[in-house]
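Q: Joint fold for the lines below.
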Amino acid sequence: MSVLLIAEHNNKEVKPFTLNAISAASQINEDVHVLVIGSNSEEVAKSISQVPNVKKVINVNNPIYENYLAENYTSVIIKLSGNYSHIICSANTFGKNLMPRVAALLDVSQISDITKVISEDTFQRPIYAGNAFATVKSNDKIKCVTIRPTSFEPAPTSGGSAEIQNGDAAEATEITKFIKKEEIKSDRPELGTARVVVSGGRGMQSGENFKLITAVADKLNAAIGASRAAVDAGYITNDHQVGQTGKVVVPDLYIAVGISGAIQHLAGMKESKVIVAINKDGEAPIFSVADYGLEADLFDALPKFLEELNKLNTIQK
Amino acid sequence: MKILVAVKRVIDYNVQIRVKEDNSGVVTENVKMSTNPPDDNAIEEAVKIKEAGKAKEVVAVSVGEEKAQETVRKALAVGADRGILVKVDGVIEPLAVSKILKKIVEKEKPDLVFMGKQAIDDDCNQTGQMLAALLNWPQATFASKIEVKEKSLEVTREVDEGLETIEVKVPAIVTCDLRLNEPRYASLPNIMKAKKKPIEQVSAGDLGVDVKSRIEQIKVEEPPKRKAGIKVASVEELVQKLKNEAKVI
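A: Joint structure:
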């Protein structure tokens, strides 16, 4: 039996986390089929067919799939599910929204947000905001699994030539209607995949002060993150939130500025390779996970940090 | 309209959890328990809609052990009219919870079901979507704004790229994000009043739902510890360490 992976895309290009999910899927079973549900999404199907780990692409093209709605996607997936041992997608807001709807209709107990594939039915996943890891085995006939993207390397995007097959649309949902999406456009690297992340917390004191973070992020070609406290206080928009209920990031370098380090924030960043904490409270829990802690007032430290970075001859991109 | 709100009793979000020595799970004895945080947002939103005159009744339901009654009672103190406790022992998976909630929905016939987007213990993020599937209702997950219309809701959802707005026909399921509202504290008079509000108790068996686990938990382990870091004395030292020791800039 094969693995069915549900692609996330915007009808033009595939979203990066789908590539991480493909890597995980191919660890479960080498026969990975990718389902692209969209409208005029041929280019997406074509690009996925070039991923070497993919054996087949099923493209379901219909104007009703112009915008992603879980209700619509689910009907298509259920129709195809009989041919598969596993149904897989990324555990971001796309997959978290979709997979349980599929699993419930198949009467399957889903396994969410796995960080490791142990065997085709056994997986490791974080619980309690990553303060514990559970190893779990699914006894269901079909396994519905979502993948923590940052725990798997993205699959290479060229060298493959999978067959592309057209699939059938299902009936369009009448109970849910897409109205709009307000995407926040940025020239920066995406938070979920950036090599460096600079994050601000409540200590920033205002949205205006985030310009200090922005300046450092510009210099390091970094994404900008934030704690829940900073988002709740309105300093920055929700798409920047790092944590248990925000995004999980695993950059090479994570710089936490004015962030105390609540359990729920640590859950989103503590797997980062190198962590820097800048905080004036020397007792802040963020220091317990930091490789380098600087106890200082961020309003002095950040401009000075930028100054020191400017002195360097080269900075990695 | 009638709103059913599902609430879960979990280890308090401020508690640093401990893994049991035999790796069979997490220590829950003598640990502070509270309502799952986004479930507080769900109950708050339902009560606000009722206060705005757009809902007649708010019913709080919890699925759990006897002590989950405290969680239902807290929802009553915040403004729910009555409560239901579906008693089950031990760990129960979201699929079984959604089957139980489906039975409750069939009996109570609410127009809306609200709950938190995710429980902070198992971090599954499944129950609302599963319930929506089983009822063939629309789902509006990760809601940060809800506008009640004649026979529908307009819901703003927090998604990775920013915000998305969808319209769902009533009856509908909404899972609530933390920024939906600011949950209120129950006042002392309301806590006293809540003690008189009825909580109906049923068991999963009464509802005819099989709650047996489908997933075998093989072991629970502590995460790998990070090696202790150092404090640097100055910004200069920090930059030097990042450049020459960690080699990340």
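Q: Anything notable?
A: Chain B touches chain A through 82 residues (CB under 8 Å). The radius of gyration of chain B is 21 Å.
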